[in-house]
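> agent: user asked for a holo structure of the chain below bound to zinc ion. Plan: (1) validate sequence alphabet, (2) canonicalize SMILES, (3) run complex prediction with ligand conditioning, (4) return tokens. Step 1... ok. Step 2... ok. Step 3 dispatched.
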Amino acid sequence: MTDPPSSRANEGEISQSSVTSERVAATRVLRVVVIAPHPDDAELGMGGSIARLVAEGHQVLILDMTDGEPTPKGSRALRAAESEAATRVLGCQRQQLGLRNREVTHTLEARHAVAEVLRAWQCDTMFIPHPEDAHPDHRAATRIAEDARFDAKLTQSAIAGTPIHPKRLFYYYCTHLRTIPSPSFALDTTEFVEVKRASILAYRSQVIDHAPNRGLLDWLEARDRFIGSQVGTLAAEPFWSRELLSPSGLAGLVP
Ligand SMILES: [Zn+2]
């Protein structure tokens, strides 16, 4: 993982107006962390939005809780190579926390490990899995992430790094349930349908070699088209916010 972008102006002769404009520009670059239980969950749930955020100039880190293995057709080496390829397609950065696949548990150690990543990245915006899910790893990852957001702001703690409180936390849908519970908003991903598809197809061991999952890509694209139809775009990805949203103006709200 590379360092997050600095929001400080360079030392030297800089006019007040350029300092001010730099400060304004810096506040517009979001430092996003997408927390994923397994490599591929971020792509499946919000690959189009990740590609869009990157294209808009935001800094995006995918933090995988586990390496995702074992799976029926995968291996650790194969999954790592697939994950690396998907990350290149999306243009974001990626890190793995090292928890054990199928055994993700909501512990203090896991919370603090995630909080350290949030601090190192100086994260201001989190995307985490929706809490309603059939997969125990997914539910545990959500609880860990929610508490890590709180832990990351604590002073006088054993957590390494500078305290930070990510001010935005949104939930995305990588659920193993056959439902999309109550999305709050959707992001238009029309321009990033192909990128999302390529990032998912990078996980050949999961979506092609494993026969029961071969319909997954079509199902997801149908979902994104349906969500898009609800907001007047060709494709969109759904998100949920537990907290009240406050847009900066009405003009950006569509439809
Ligand atoms: Zn998963």
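> agent: step 4 complete. Summary for user: The domain at 28-241 is CATH 3.40.50.10320 (Rossmann fold). Residues 37-38, 41, 135, 138 surround zinc ion (CB under 6 Å).
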